[in-house]
Amino acid sequence: MTKAITFFIDFDNTLIDNDKIKKQIEKIISKKYGREFINRFLAINQKLREEKGYVDFPSTIDQIAREESKPEKKNELHELFHSFKFKDCLFDKTEEVIKHLSNLGQVVIVTEGDRHFQTIKIKSSGI
User: Which residues, including other chains, have CB under 8 Å from residue 32's CB and lie 6 or more apart?
Assistant: First the structure.
């Protein structure tokens, strides 16, 4: 039987704290590659965000790796995003709220951004 109510919940900054993610990722990248590198990474990311209308980390990673002519950085940065503990960045009670809402109806998580990274974030968060 189909549930009569559907709850559409935005993932970013509703269920998960993107500012916390950004700060932690900046810290990790800066520690590994230095402040100058993270500043360039963020500048590329912001430019692509303005052009595309959403955050596109895979394209940011590809571009900075091309600029530096260091393909190993591309793999290392992709691995960082694949292994990041997004679950640690969920807002308090997120899982309880989703469980409660799923008892009342169907819960649909919506998000925008690149398909690859958003899929990783959602799956890694446990949602």
Answer: 76
pTM above the 0.85 mark? no
- Asked if residue 20 lies in contact with residue 125, where contact means CB atoms within 8 angstroms, the answer is no
For 70-101, the pLDDT digits (tens) are 778 889 999 998 999 999 999 999 999 999 99
Written as six digits, the tokens of 84 are: 């990041």
- Cα 9 from Cα 126, distance rounded (Å): 15
Q: How far is CA 117 from CA 59, 68, 71, 94, 101, in A?
A: 10, 22, 19, 20, 26
Q: How far apart are CA 49 and CA 106, in angstroms?
A: 31
Torsion of CA 11, 14, 16, 17, to 10 degrees: 140
